Amino acid sequence: MTQETVISAQNLSLTFQTNDGPVHALKDVSLDVEKGDFVSFIGPSGCGKTTFLRVMADLEQQTAGTITVNGVSPAEARRARAYGYVFQAAGLYPWRTIGGNIRLPLEIMGYDKSDQAKRVKRVLELVELAGFEKKFPWQLSGGMQQRASIARALAFDADILLMDEPFGALDEIVRDHLNEQLLHLWASTQKTICFVTHSIPEAVYLSTKIVVMSPRPGRIADVIDSPLPRERPLDIRDTPEFIDIAHRVRDGLRAGHDDD
Ligand SMILES: Nc1ncnc2c1ncn2[C@@H]1O[C@H](COP(=O)(O)OP(=O)(O)OP(=O)(O)O)[C@@H](O)[C@H]1O
């Protein structure tokens, strides 16, 4: 099978100039993400996970190195609406209903009204918010708002989903369920997903590739190609294979800390 590289970073560095001096958020990061990969980025706070995602999304510019998204610059990929982005905070417009928030990118992209309605219904079911379409964000819990923001990023079917700790604020049962749903969605749509998390089990459960990062400056400490099958029931988390990968992630995180 020929692989198609969707995101390619070569010796990518990003240094923020601050009043307290330069902050080396990313240093010499090289990574290829293939079409259909589910890549998790895991590492301690401040290791540059969000910054890396923001460079992919053209929300930050690297200070050295190169990066392409779908073979073009992040700016061109953004203009081509190559990706949906789910932020840590839900970021819903308070004056729009949940349905209205999810519909917004579809309206901007010119989907017809009946297609908009179908898509809103489908993604609301996917995140278990069916029936909440007419509610306003402030009428939902924080976790439900985050699920709505995930629905919004799923609604327009971009090939790439960039997800920055989307499930961090959710309780464990809902999180497990959304993890399962996300895997189903990924398997059925063959999207490429880049996913930031602090959770080792979440990274191992979801990913085909786990990128372990270390701080100061943000570098890649380990890249683990998961040997787990793509079809994953939740109880795969009790298997020796799963536990082995989790150990390797933990070792990578620990090695990064030793450099401090
Ligand atoms: N706009 C900015 N200006 C200056 N420094 C920044 C800026 N954005 C991020 N940083 C710094 O860059 C480093 C990497 O930040 P980043 O948010 O990418 O880390 P992270 O791994 O996503 O952390 P967390 O897990 O806490 O979300 C941190 O030291 C942070 O303080």
UniProtKB/TrEMBL annotation:
Q: What is this protein called?
A: ABC transporter ATP-binding protein
The species this protein belongs to is: Roseovarius pelagicus
**What InterPro entries does UniProt report for this protein, alphabetically?**
AAA+_ATPase, ABC_transporter-like_ATP-bd, ABC_transporter-like_CS, ABC_transporter_ATP-bind, P-loop_NTPase
What does the sequence similarity comment in the record state about its family?
Belongs to the ABC transporter superfamily.
Q: Does the keyword Coiled coil apply?
A: no
Q: Which Pfam families match?
A: ABC_tran
Q: Does the keyword Nucleotide-binding apply?
A: yes
The UniProt entry, under PANTHER family, shows: ALIPHATIC SULFONATES IMPORT ATP-BINDING PROTEIN SSUB, TAURINE IMPORT ATP-BINDING PROTEIN-RELATED
Q: PROSITE patterns, alphabetically?
A: ABC_TRANSPORTER_1, ABC_TRANSPORTER_2
